[in-house]
Amino acid sequence: MARSLDAPAAIRAVAADTGARPGPTWPTGRTCREPGCDTRLSIYNRSTACSVHEEVRRFIVRGRRGMTADDLGIETETRRIA
Ligand SMILES: [Zn+2]
């Protein structure tokens, strides 16, 4: 009868991975706010930009004050990566 414990445990682990997780989530099907970027955002991503564009903006804000990704023409670069 010891084996009967294995199955329920495995099923529970899978369910916990794919489904109901406590904490706030966001609607599915959202895309990056960057024009032309079709990257879908995770429901756990509270940002409105994909990780690529979010990181680019953060880096620029730190490195060069007042400059945006558009000013530097970075959008084209990141789109290729994404
Ligand atoms: Zn993006």
Anisotropy-based shape: elongated
Largest sheet: none
Topology as a string of helices (H) and strands (E) = HHHH
Q: Give the helix level as a range of percent.
A: 40-55%
| Uncertain regions spanning at least 5 consecutive residues | none
State the helix count: 4
Summed over residues and divided by their number, the pLDDT gives a mean of 70
Percent range for β-strand residues: under 5%
What is the number of strand segments? 0
Query: What gyration radius follows from the Cα positions, in whole Å?
Result: 20 Å
Q: In whole angstroms, how far apart are the ends? A: 51 Å
Overall SS class: mainly alpha
Bound molecules: zinc ion
Give the SSE map.
Blueprint: H1 6-18, H2 51-63, H3 69-72, H4 74-81
Features:
binds zinc ion; 0% strand; 82 residues
Description:
The protein has 82 residues and is an all-alpha fold. The protein has a domain at 25-81. The protein has helices at residues 6-18, 51-63, 69-72, 74-81. The chain is elongated and about 55 Å long. The protein starts with 5 loop residues before the first helix and ends with a helix. The model has no long low-confidence stretch (mean pLDDT 70).
Short description:
The protein is mainly α. It is built from four helices and no strands. It has helices at 6-18, 51-63, 69-72, 74-81.
